[in-house]
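#structure-requests
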Amino acid sequence: MGFFDNFTTDIGIDLGTCNTLIYVRGQGIVVDEPSVVAVEKGTGRVVAVGKEAKSMLWRTPGDIEAIRPLADGVISDSDSTEKMLKYFIRKVIPKHHLFKSIRMKIGIPSCITQVQQDAVMAAALKAGAKEVKLIEESLAAAIGAEIPIYEPAGHMVCDIGGGTTEVSVISLGGMVVTSSIRVGGNAFDESIIKYIRKEHNLVIGQQTAEKLKIEIGNAMAEKTADGDKIRKVEIKGNDAITGLPRRLEVDSIEVREALKEPVNKIVDEIKRVFQVTPPELAADIIERGIVMAGGGSMLKGLKDLIKEKTNVPVLLVEKPLESVARGAGEAFELFKAMSSSRSIYANLND
């Protein structure tokens, strides 16, 4: 560590549609909270951020509005995003340390436009960063999973976030092939909501759908000695016809059916990326496997389904939710080391 490193704080941020994670180099993950801001209407005064604000979603009085400032992996409300980032940064960096220069590296989906990239950078700079750099989420996830991305070998990473899924092939520290689709954990929830309404005439909210996804959501049947394992959960909602509250018991088979469409889109995207991957790198991936990260990758049976549909081994990183933020925070030093190594080889060729 150099002298000036004492005056610099490196921060990696996974600015997610559902959750924001912040990694501080040397400390680890210091923030893991919902990407929600509650503000007072008219004044714009922040009432709550993160977990407290999420508890207010769909439950606020008329003068308070709970906002998700990101949608499909991009900023939809710049002002709220800035306020959210400021809150989280001040929460993790004491005031007497704010004289330090804050460097941020933020994970972004590869599908966002230049205007959307500019919005992310502007929000981070206004939140207090002295230097902001962006990094593709799958590349950050690979670094966070400690994949040796600088090797001359192919690595495939599938990062399933709240708003997007990014599939990339990485070699020699760069993206050889990358593709991003607007399908993720939120799409899983929406599919469950639509299915329950269509099949049972019951209207449920996003939090109930998320509960179903986490508790009994699955992409493939769980096999036991006695056959498929079926799990059941009781939910509550409003009857779509009478409008009155009603209870309903839902099983894991129904939830699997509800999730078929978004799950198949992810599988199809992985297949499509393979079709445009150079054969040499595809051969490497067959040996090393597809690495999965992001909260959506934790859906039960998804890893096994992708393995079955592609005939390629699939590995789930140890901490799927943390990999993008961790990788973004470690990228500063990793790319610095890679740059130094290339400089040595360049000097040998002079």
